[in-house]
Amino acid sequence: MTLDEIDRALVLALARDAAQPTTQLGRKLGLSQPATWRRIRRLQESGVLSARRLQLDAAKLGFDVTVFLGIKLATKGRVSLEDFERAVSAIPEVQTVDHVLGLYDYRLRVVARDLADFERVLRRRIMTLPGVGDVEANVLLSEERRPGPI
């Protein structure tokens, strides 16, 4: 699908705040509400817009620690990637599971209430998963969210 300048502006506006009403978006873009709605619908049907997500503030919900884990699966036993992904995805503290190329096989984003809680999740839940070998932890100090290239 080819995006024109209005489509790009619409995608950028939705990336900043996906909950904006179409009347407000239309005013910003010089479009009527129905025209804005039709463009959003076309972007959804083409797959450019796949979902609107709610962004939660983990710290305000009591999860003050975020840790990125690099996990290398053990070569002994050869657990299947699907089995590992299914098992790790069932852990509520694991926010994202990324299969990556490099030193580690997976990168996980894990939230915890504090470091003791993270240690509990790591020892009792993550380290006991089938196939887990080497693990490297990086504690998030700060995060700046930047809009994408559009």
Fill in the keyword field for this structure.
5 helices; elongated; Alpha-Beta Plaits; four-stranded antiparallel sheet; alpha+beta; Arc Repressor Mutant, subunit A
What features would you describe in this structure?
It is a single chain. The protein has 150 residues and is of the alpha+beta class. The protein folds into 2 domains: 5-46, Arc Repressor Mutant, subunit A, CATH 1.10.10; 59-139, Alpha-Beta Plaits (2-Layer Sandwich). It is 37% helix and 20% strand. It has helices at residues 5-16, 22-29, 33-46, 81-89, 115-126; strands spanning 65-73, 94-99, 106-112, 132-139. The chain has a 4-stranded antiparallel sheet with strand order 2-3-1-4. The chain is elongated and about 60 Å long. The mean pLDDT is 91.
What strand line-up does the widest sheet have? Answer: 2-3-1-4
Which bin fits the share of residues in helices?
25-40%
Largest sheet: 4 strands, antiparallel
CATH superfamily of the largest domain: Lrp/AsnC effector binding domain/regulation of amino acid metabolism (RAM) domain
**Number of separate structural domains:** 2
By CATH, the topology of the largest domain is Alpha-Beta Plaits
Query: Per CATH, which architecture of the largest domain?
Result: 2-Layer Sandwich
Radius of gyration: 20 Å
Number of helices: 5
Say how many strands there are.
Answer: 4
Unreliable residue runs:
none
Q: Which H/E pattern describes the elements?
A: HHHEHEEHE
- Structural category is alpha+beta
Overall geometry: elongated
Mean of the pLDDT scores? 91
